[in-house]
TrEMBL record:
Keyword field: Repeat
Gly residues compositional bias, start-end: 7-20
Ranges that cross the membrane: none
InterPro entries on file: 5peptide_repeat
SUPFAM superfamilies registered for this protein in UniProt: Pentapeptide repeat-like
Pfam family, one: Pentapeptide_4
Keyword set includes Repeat: yes
Name of the protein: Pentapeptide repeat-containing protein
Gene3D superfamilies given in the database record: E3 ubiquitin-protein ligase SopA (2.160.20.80)
Region (Disordered): 1-24
Keyword Repeat: yes
Species name: Streptomyces cellulosae
Length: 234
């Protein structure tokens, strides 16, 4: 069974702190021996110490459920309803699906590895000590969410929506960010220097509280000039 201990004192954490920005604290998930689970989700269900391995959860309703010390591996989550769910001290490996609804959910001390998902609804959610590593997520909705000590690592995010969200101690390491929406977002100790490709569609004026590299500043210069109403002529 997967046992993970990923601390914020690693190479990425040190690099983040080197420039004065506070490094995110990474989750330290150590799963106990797990019992296999193959049933259906129930609203307000309580799932403790369980392994969901390649379980088809398509269209099921687990709204308000609590997942504690769980491992979800290779599960299908298309249109799965997990509104206001609590996912604690758990590891999700290879989740896949479109339209997974995690609105107003709480994720704390969670690792999400190699996700292949689209249209994930996390608006109004709370993410604390979360690592999202590898994979690709299209149209991630984090509007009005609260992210604290969150690390995105070696993943691709297409048109992620952080509108009105609060990001504190959030790191992007070796990521590709396409069409990011930061409209009305609040950033504090957000480290974007490790982003391999950074494209901001809206809200470039909300970058106060973020740290970028000199090369990224040059790439963003036309967008920044436009946001500030600066005309650049030869």
């Amino acid at each position: 069974m997967a046992r993970r201990a990923v601390g914020g004192t690693g190479v990425a954490g040190k690099a983040a702190g080197a420039g004065g920005v506070k490094a995110a604290r990474r989750p330290e998930v150590r799963l106990p021996p797990l019992e296999p689970y193959g049933g259906e989700l129930e609203p307000d269900g309580d799932y403790d110490g369980l392994e969901f391995r390649e379980v088809d959860l398509v269209g099921q309703d687990g709204g308000g459920a609590r997942f504690m010390d769980c491992a979800l591996t290779g599960c299908a989550l298309d249109e799965t309803r997990l509104t206001r769910a609590r996912v604690l001290d758990s590891v999700l490996t290879g989740p896949r699906g479109v339209g997974t609804d995690l609105a107003e959910a709480t994720l704390r001390d969670v690792e999400v590895i190699d996700a292949r998902m689209g249209g994930v609804q996390l608006h109004g959610a709370v993410l604390e000590r979360v690592l999202i590593r590898g994979g690709k997520i299209d149209y991630l909705n984090l509007r009005s969410a609260r992210l604290r000590d969150v690390v995105f690592e070696s993943c691709v995010l297409v048109e992620p929506d952080f509108g009105g969200a609060r990001l504190e101690r959030v790191e992007f390491v070796d990521c590709t960010l396409k069409g990011v929406d930061l409209n009305a977002a609040t950033l504090r100790d957000v480290d974007l220097r490790g982003v391999a490709s950074l494209e901001i569609a809206r809200g470039v004026d909300r970058l106060a509280g973020a740290v970028i590299s000199p090369a990224q500043l040059l790439d963003l210069a036309p967008v920044l000039a436009g946001a500030l109403g600066i005309r650049v002529e030869g």
